[in-house]
Structure formats: C-alpha cells, structure tokens
Amino acid sequence: MRAVFLDRDGTIGGTGGGMHPDEFTLYDFSPQSIKSLNQSGLKVFLFTNKTRVGRGYFSEEQLLNGFERIKSELKSHSAFLDDIFYCPHKPDDGCTCQKPRIGLLMEAQRKYNLRLEQCYIVGDTGSSDMIAANTAGARKVLVKTGWGMNSLTTHRHTWEGVQPDFIAEDLVGAVNWIVNDFKEDKKVISND
Description:
This protein is α/β, with parallel strands linked by helices. It has helices at residues 30-40, 51-54, 60-75, 103-112, 126-136, 148-152, 171-191, and strands at residues 3-6, 43-49, 83-87, 120-123, 139-143, 166-168.
C-alpha cells in the first residue's frame, strides 16, 4: 500500500499558520488535485499538527467539525481523504506524534500496512513536514504556498541538510509530479 500525506495549513488551503477550523478554506485547486491522487490508486491522508487545540485556542470538537467540512467540500468534487491523522498536543507536551516527529506516520503505517519509503509527504514547512518525511524515509515534496517560500529562504537553516525530492509551486504541481513518479515506479516494478 502506498500513500500521499498532505499537510493542511498552507498546503491544501489556509495561510500556512494554524488557522481556526471555522476560518480554514481549501485552495480552489485542492479538490481536483486530491481527486487526481484518488484516481491514481494512491491512498490520500491528511496529516497535521494542531497545537492550538492543546493550547486552548479551539476545541478538538471544533477541529473535527472542520475536518468534516473539508471532507464534505471534497465530496462535492468527487474527491476524498482516506484518513486524517492529527496531533492535538501542545509543543512542550513531549508527544511522539507532533511533526517533525513521526508518530502520525507510524500510526498510518501500522493501520494501512504502508512502506513509508514508498510514500510521499507534501507540505509547506521544511522544519516540520520535510524533516518528518526525511526521518521516515519518505519522498519529500515542498510546496511554495503557505510558508513554503519562507521555508526555502528565510528559514532554510532550520532544516539544513534535508533536500526535497521535488519543489512545487502549489498542490497542482506536487500532484502532477507524484502521479508521474508513481507511474514510473509501477513501470519499473512490472518490468522486474
């Protein structure tokens, strides 16, 4: 089983910051991009840090309601998420799930029998998304939306030594690269 893990804020919508679920909206291009992943045969997971739950900015119930709105909007475009993995803890809670730690990825690996080195992680933040992908051995795709440009410039030192496998303008470019890469891998496997 192979999958694509998508960060929420700055990757599929929002501004890059931990937006309140009631204020979060998908980018116009996200539903079709996610639908393309659905049609490719890859599982599609949302994976996101939500430290603002732990810090009391909004409740876990509000977060879950926000996830339901995302799923409903995707459904109206014939797109879907296979699952959602999130960390609700405060930064200093010492949990194993908060990116850049890989607890969320390990949970998905167990649940779906994944080979993480054959999965893709798409995010806008080098110091969390790309480091988590690197630690897990997954393929790293950085988008320039959200905090992506700052990750590549002002904050590049926070994830020095980690190189994305691909840098995309947005989710559309990321998905095009992933679908092509996945097709190439399938060709190689079928020729072996």
